[in-house]
Amino acid sequence: MSENDNLQDADGKKEVESTETTPTQPTEIETNAVDTEVNNDLEKGSEIKTVETEAVDNVKSEDDDVEDTPTTKAPKDELVDEIEASNAEDAEDESNAERHEVEEKDYHAMTMDELTAEIGRLLKTHKIQTISKHVNEIKGEFNAKYSELLDEKKEEFIEDGGNEIDFYYTNDTKKQFNTHYKEYKQTINAYYKEREQNLKQNLDTRLEIIEDIKGLLSVEENMGTTYKTFKELQEKWRNAGPIPRDKYNNAWNTYHHHVERFYDFLHLNNDLRDMDFKHNYDQKLKIIERAEELAEDENTNRSFRELQVLHKLWKEELGPVGKEHREAIWERFSNATKAIHDKRQSYYADMDKAHEKNLERKEEIIAQIVAVAEDKGNSHSAWQKKIKDIEVLRDAFFKAGKVPLKVNESTWAKFKGAVRTFNRGKNSFYKDLKKDQYDNLKKKKDLIQIAEDNKDSEDFATVTPLMKKIQNEWKKIGHVPRRDSDKIWKQFKAACNHYFDKMHTERKAQDQHLYDAFDKKAKLLDELKTLELTEDPKADIKILQDKIAEWKTIGYVPQNKRYIDGKFYKAIDDKFDKLKMDKSKLEMIKFESKLENLADSDDTRLLDNEQNFIRKRITEIKSEINQLENNLQFFSNVKSDNPLVKDVHKNIANHKKELDTWKSKLTKVRGMYS
């Protein structure tokens, strides 16, 4: 352990021995020499070198031996320097240590929207001085991703014929991010400005305390009173508040230097000194034991952060111990520190290996992007698929994790280059495609002109086929530029709708009597559905026949409303089915009602269709009867009361009865022609 180490200073290891056996007060010249050196070093902001033998060469201590003072730093000193630097940073503001509690996230894997949301969250949930590291990482990642997007937009702009000097692009995400970052800069600057005055004042207070401790060496009074004053100055020092980080180590080293001088170079009551030494020794043993426990903790970051706190306690809260223990306890604490540090270095080594694997994965992804860019597929659908593939690969690239710092920039450059090559190919394809789209746009505008020229025409016989024709042509024309698509479609649709609405309005006016007839039939249908039968079949038949006659007198309805006739006759059939009378007679009554609807003196097509249907049905029934009678021949030796034979005879009888009904229907139909 080097004697230049700050924590060893705190244990008074930097004393210099004298061959004198009688303790003496330092001379005024000697004291001034030390003070001048210490103050000059503090003003320069450099580390106090209290170990230099020439500074305290003539200072004498009771029962001391001369020690060597090595000038090179041991590895353990470098570990402590790292901790000292972190504690110096925290010394400016005790709450600054909360920066260790801010969650570490993989900002590289986040999108620009996610990064913007994250910086906003940090500003709302954490003290401004604790998030600087995170904000700077987020800003770096956001700028890299936005730069990539900017390059892509610029290339598209130039591909579309734009001049590079005229290019400008921003988006809402960028504006929101800038707002958050501006808030961060304003808040952090205000924080530093307010803190600066307090830090300077606290530093002045601590320098005054050091001067007061130095002054105790020349005070001629009772040792108990001097010791009490010394303890009060120590308590005042502990409560003096934070100081600038660049003054932290120098101030503490100077303070410890003069504390040691007070203990070691004055005629101090040995009991009081030994009590302090014992207290400090016991407390430092506890710190060492805790450090040794931390060396077993698997969470290396957590153990290292707590180790920093232990070093701060060792340095700031505790004074020196007895000379016989100083080297041993520092060596033990230093060994525990090194164990934690080595474990942490091992953790980072494993992390470096993981970063190497991430690099391999990212190299694979870049190669895949290059392969997609070189793919010869040159249709719109092929490019849409490639665009989706690239999005998946880009997402995978960012989620693959960090790579070794030494290749971070080169890997990012390869990635951007591969994506840029793909974008150039895509832009070139769609530039050619846009030429076709502009041709399509002209064709569709020509159709719009035709539609608008004819939308007020009343020559429906001529214009209606024309309007239908241009509608079909519109469907066959390909894509137009996206920015024009909705606009021209609305124009075309409005012109066509104007014409057809006008046509339908006029036709409806001409056919108003048909619509009036529909309204009457709809009302009659509703009445029929709610009609209650009288239980007198003859009376009910008369009512239903009257409804049919009334329906016929109403007349025709519009072509697209003729479905109502089917609904009416279905409702009539439902009412007939509820009559309590012979089914065959009922069937004929229903049929006669149907014939009333089919009869038309000017058009016999419906009657012709019905007659043909009846003839076909009669033929089918005769065929079925013949088949059943033929089947009976297979039962010539079977008794007539056999169930199977009886069933066949029954079916034949039913078919013959049905045949008679259909023959009657045929006779009725024929009678309608006279």
TrEMBL record:
Transmembrane segments: none annotated. It comes from the Bacteria. Pfam families: DUF349. Residues 79-95 have a biased composition (Acidic residues). The keyword Coiled coil applies. Residues 19-31 have a biased composition (Low complexity). Keywords: Coiled coil. Residues 41-61, 96-105 have a biased composition (Basic and acidic residues). Residues 611-665 form a coiled coil. Residues 1-105 are annotated as: Disordered. This is Uncharacterized protein DUF349. It comes from Winogradskyella pacifica.
